[in-house]
From TrEMBL:
Domain of life: Bacteria
Leading EC class: oxidoreductase
One GO CC term, this protein: cytosol
Stated name of the protein: UDP-N-acetylenolpyruvoylglucosamine reductase
The protein's role, per its UniProt record: Cell wall formation.
Species of the source: Stenomitos frigidus ULC18
Length: 334
């Protein structure tokens, strides 16, 4: 597919910058009191992150904020900077393992960055970072815009998909992305093309950087039959539900596939680990590249199971499995 460049069409409202001096004094006063950035946006202390991850594990964020406006996003970065705090970016948390000890600094959630624009003529779709990827997939199909049917079973946000190069059923984010707008920690924005994002399998130049994707534009093919596209989307959705264990909390595939010949799930299965359990975490019977939280897992159980699977696969196959899941926080003593 030929990718064309077009500046993003959806502007995140509220571009006025909050004063750095006022943020700095609020940071100095901060202590453990909530900090109000605007009427609608509060930086809160000690917020449990378990509810914000698909594994349903993880300790508290030292500070947590979910901005809705662009100025609030900028102010959140400024506040962390003024307080000399590290920043962690959180989408839907569907590819994260967060330590039971939680995360120091400020966690910025993108879940309220919700806006979208579908152009049925050109096929261009511009969406905010916090839009759920499955929702965008359904909406595109309903409008006869072909391209994102593969994305329906991936329970992340648009921002997370851009960073992870999320993909399924032979499609991936890089194939359809025209550009992504990012907010840099110094408060400036940049528009990045797929070439600048250096996309590879489940990987992009944004991983390990604190550049916040605010919105992304995709080029889809207009003029398709919405009924046929919706049927194909449903088919992908149902296929995922029947072949993968969606009934318990997980992060989807834990490891990257080492190659097309060696799938991580097959290697783990051959090492005899299906059903293997540590604490409340279990390697799924249905798909060995999934680890399930069977109800009472700690993040440390999942972490130990990841290390155990890596060790066993290395013993059997002399292959090092690399986690796809992003592991955040302190697991040293786990
Ligand atoms: C049941 C299940 C099935 C899954 N199936 C698939 C699949 O088929 N294919 C696939 O590719 N993945 C799959 N996943 C994994 C996951 O859904 C994807 O990796 C998804 O793209 C992560 O998006 P997220 O919003 O949840 O990101 P998060 O998990 O919140 O974050 C992932 C990384 O992206 C960063 N990040 C998130 N948002 C932003 C932003 N706006 N700006 C900058 N950085 C950001 C985070 O800091 C973190 O490093 C599955 C997960 C589950 C639970």
């Amino acid at each position: 597919m030929t990718l064309s460049y077009d500046p993003p069409k959806v502007a995140i409202p509220g571009t006025a910058r909050l004063s750095f001096e006022s943020l700095k004094s609020s940071a100095q006063r901060a202590g453990t009191q909530p900090i109000r950035l605007s009427n609608d946006c509060i930086i809160k202390p000690q917020v449990s992150l378990a509810a914000f991850t698909s594994f349903r594990v993880g300790g508290p964020a030292q500070w947590y904020v979910a901005p809705k406006q662009f100025a609030e996003l900028q102010a959140s970065f400024d506040w962390a900077h003024a307080h000399d705090l590290p920043v962690t970016l959180l989408g839907a948390g569907s590819n994260l393992l967060i330590s039971d000890r939680g995360l120091p600094g400020l966690v910025i959630s993108t879940r309220r960055l919700r806006q979208n624009q579908f152009d049925p003529e050109s096929g261009q779709v511009t969406v905010g970072a916090g839009e759920p990827l499955p929702l965008v997939s359904w909406h595109a199909a309903e409008r006869g815009l072909q391209g994102l049917e593969w994305a329906v079973g991936i329970p992340g946000t648009i921002g997370g998909a851009v960073v992870m190069n999320a993909g399924a059923h032979g499609g991936c984010t890089a194939d359809y992305l025209v550009n992504a707008q990012v907010l840099l920690p110094d408060g400036t924005t940049k528009i990045l093309t797929p070439q600048e994002l250096h996309y590879r399998y489940r990987s992009s130049a944004l991983q390990g950087k604190n550049w916040l994707v605010t919105q992304a534009t995709f080029q889809l093919q207009p003029g398709f039959d919405p009924v046929a596209l919706t049927a194909l989307t449903s088919q992908h959705y149902n296929h995922r539900r029947t072949t993968q264990p969606y009934h318990l909390p997980s992060c989807g595939s834990v490891f990257r596939n080492p190659s097309n010949d060696y799938k991580a799930g097959w290697l783990i299965e051959q090492a005899g680990l299906k059903g293997y359990q540590i604490g409340g975490a279990q390697i799924a019977e249905r798909h060995a590249n999934f680890i399930l939280n069977c109800g009472n897992a700690m993040a440390s159980d999942i972490f130990r199971l990841i290390r155990h699977a890596q060790h066993q696969v290395e013993q059997h196959w002399s292959l090092q499995l690399v986690p796809e899941v992003r592991i955040l926080g302190d697991f040293q003593a786990a």
